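queue> holo job accepted (glycyl-adenosine-5'-phosphate)
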Amino acid sequence: MANNEELFKKIIAHSKEYGFVFQSSEIYDGLSAVYDYAQNGTELKNNIRNYWWKAMVQMHENIVGIDTAIFMHPTVWKASGHVDAFNDPMIDNKDSKKRYRADVLVEDHIAKIEAKITKEIEKAAIRFGESFDEQQFRNTNPRVLANIEKIEDIKNRLYPAMDNNDMVAIKQLIEDIEIVCPVSGSKNWSEVRQFNLMFSTNIGSTAEGATEIFLRPETAQGIFVNYLNVQKTGRMKIPFGIAQTGKAFRNEIVARQFIFRMREFEQMEMQFFVRPGEEMKWYEYWKNERMHWHQSLGIPAAMFRFHDHDKLAHYANAAADIEFEFPIGFKELEGIHSRTDFDLGAHEKHSGKKLRYHDPELNESYVPYVVETSIGLDRMFLAVMSFAYTEEQLEDGSSRVVMKFPPMLAPYKVAVFPLTKKDGLPEKAREIMNKLKYDHMCFYEEKDAIGKRYRRHDAIGTPYCVTVDHQTLEDNTVTIRERDTMQQERIAINEISGVVGERLNVKP
Ligand code: GAP
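queue> job finished
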């Protein structure tokens, strides 16, 4: 049984090998914390997004969806508090006048110790030749062991300090491990200060005429600034919600856990506008709704838990995370926040425009309170991959890796195989595929033995494989094989779509 770190590595390797996720710009050695979705990953991601959209928009009469621009007026981010308070730590060297991310300096220091370990191992490998056992060497060589311990000590100080925004502790760590500036070689450091996580660029063609703007760090603000437009044009009555999915960008400091924390990622957010004073009722409602959504996928309830925040962000009067048990432990997957009237109030102040809702039942105008649900699509993707990844030993002594995706999320729903490449079987299989593809995402394959084709589709999580054989030509029946049980049965061609559809028909 793989330990969790090993399992995480296997999921990352599987994601690449089977066309789910690639490192961005891989041929140039990649871009840190940026990833591309491959052919199967894109289908899975689209299916997760659609499942969310269906649950939030299609299933709620009082929620509508919008799609706002990534670029927004720069004052939006002043009003939202991101310009002043969306920060991470940085440090200056007083001799070289160079500025560094404090945690990156520490990470680089760790990388140097790791390089020493690697060098030690390489030297030993040459010395011992074929009899060299790397694991044994790692476990016993005193210099390697001392360096591993050093790395652990540093990590055990860095990560809690980062989590707690403890700038003094980070500075102390840099001093204690005697990090020198790569340019001046000195240890003459400034205090550690906060660094803003927003990416900025310029809009406008000339240097004088250009304005600094930001790549949005959350999609929510596009909803806030449009809420009155949507309310009026959609004749929405409070309580109502506005949903949107889209890219967000953060110049993340701790970005090292595959797609868990990225610099470019996608959010699925919904702002629910309510009467002031009713926000706690709706906060509880959305906590339950969202947990129900996760469990409707068939993922065991034990893999999810709530984490209620004690320390609240400046805009919130209640907040909770839905955490998922990733191979790297229980971590935040989604946030549910009661954001009060903080955002709309701030936009009223900064824009000078009234953002009040006239409540016809109360016959009064007010700035609505907002309850937000905010989930990272990439994080949900990783949760689904982690849940689905399964290694199985089979009765015949062989083994398989099968992605047990909830069927409605699987990239392909049916694979169609002719048993052989002759006797008219490919033609018949194509005929079936050409009809089936109107209903379901299908994959046609005729290369290799059937067993190999089954394994390939297990690895990408296709719930059904349909095989066309000589009997098909006589009686229009096929064998259909189910991914998880590997059970096969013989059914009529015109039953395939219904059998597959039945399993996909899960209500969010
Ligand atoms: N509008 C509220 C908001 O943005 P957040 O807790 O900062 O709240 C919401 O982000 C969700 O977005 C998180 O629960 C997580 O799933 C996802 N997320 C945040 N930062 C991310 C990153 N760097 N990479 C991937 N997903 C991220």
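queue> Residues 218, 220, 250, 252, 261-262, 265, 267, 269, 332-335, 372, 374-376, 378-379 surround glycyl-adenosine-5'-phosphate (CB under 6 Å).
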